[in-house]
């Protein structure tokens, strides 16, 4: 059975309704923090702000703590309420989503640590255009994935899944360009490697945003599309009963 944003407000127990809403609220709060971590990590690199990068690294602990709190809440709901059907899908989706958000936070921390090294070494801005372009894509994917989760919006979730293919393509093109640059100028190897690690982290963030979107489709439609080719996915599939 498909679910909507009102599907979890019809239980006899008002406390159960509240617990389910709290899970979503806390997940969105974690998502907001993680989204800001990614934005700040990239800004730290592009603006040469090592202090901002250091704050991103320090805030990673807060992201981890939020995941632990959400996991504990989900465990209590499973133990006390023994949810079934769409309620069970919601709890499982929240657990999985929190895990992916924590990993996005880890990738943001990696970007920040590499940014500190690049800012301190002052080795130019080669690769910054690629970082800016890909970061804009993945940040939009994270934002849209979270919005789709909050609204149970499968159409927006599908757009995120399809966008991941474009991010992967742009990432591969950027890596080829940077490899060519390193072969032409050996002095650039060290700083460009740092940029490549940042691009890799951004590509992984896109993958995790894709996972979040897949959870939305699973949550709302009961469809597991994890191993489905994005080219085979369309809106008609999501509207089938």
Topology:
Layout: H1 14-47, H2 50-81, H3 85-121, H4 128-151, H5 154-184, H6 189-221, H7 235-239
Helix pairs in contact: 1-2, 1-3, 1-4, 2-3, 3-6, 4-5, 4-6, 5-6
Labels describing this entry:
0% strand; mainly alpha; globular; 81% helix; 241 residues
What does this protein look like?
This protein is mainly α and 241 residues long. Helices cover 81% and strands 0% of the residues. The chain is globular.
Q: What's the quick description here?
A:
The protein has 241 residues and is an all-alpha fold.
Order of helices and strands: HHHHHHH
Radius of gyration: 20 Å
Number of extended strands? 0
Described by strand count, sense and barrel closure, the largest sheet is: none
Helix residue percentage: over 70%
Structural class: mainly alpha
H/I helix tally: 7
Q: Which regions contain 5 or more consecutive residues with pLDDT less than 50?
A: none
Distance between the amino and carboxyl termini: 8 Å
Globally, the shape reads globular
> What's the rounded overall pLDDT mean?
88
Percent of sequence in beta strands:
under 5%
């Amino acid at each position: 059975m498909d679910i909507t944003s009102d599907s979890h407000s019809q239980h006899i127990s008002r406390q159960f309704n509240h617990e389910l809403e709290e899970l979503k609220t806390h997940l969105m709060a974690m998502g907001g923090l993680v989204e800001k971590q990614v934005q700040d990590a990239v800004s730290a690199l592009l603006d040469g702000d090592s202090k901002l990068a250091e704050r991103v690294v320090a805030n990673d602990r807060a992201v981890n703590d939020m995941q632990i709190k959400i996991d504990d809440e989900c465990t209590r709901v499973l133990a006390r309420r023994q949810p079934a059907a769409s309620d069970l899908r919601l709890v499982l989706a929240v657990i999985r989503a929190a895990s992916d958000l924590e990993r996005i936070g880890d990738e943001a921390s990696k970007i920040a640590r590499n940014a500190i090294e690049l800012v301190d070494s002052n080795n130019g801005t080669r690769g910054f255009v690629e970082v800016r372009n890909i970061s804009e894509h993945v940040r939009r994917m994270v934002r849209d994935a979270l919005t789709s989760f909050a609204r149970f919006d499968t159409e927006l979730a599908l757009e995120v899944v399809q966008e991941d293919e474009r991010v992967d393509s742009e990432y591969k093109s950027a890596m080829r360009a940077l490899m060519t640059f390193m072969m032409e100028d050996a002095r650039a190897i060290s700083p460009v490697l740092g940029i490549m690690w940042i691009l890799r982290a951004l590509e992984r963030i896109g993958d995790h945003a894709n996972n979040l979107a897949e959870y939305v489709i699973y949550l709302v439609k009961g469809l597991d599309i994890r191993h489905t080719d994005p080219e085979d996915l369309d809106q008609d599939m999501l509207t089938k009963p």
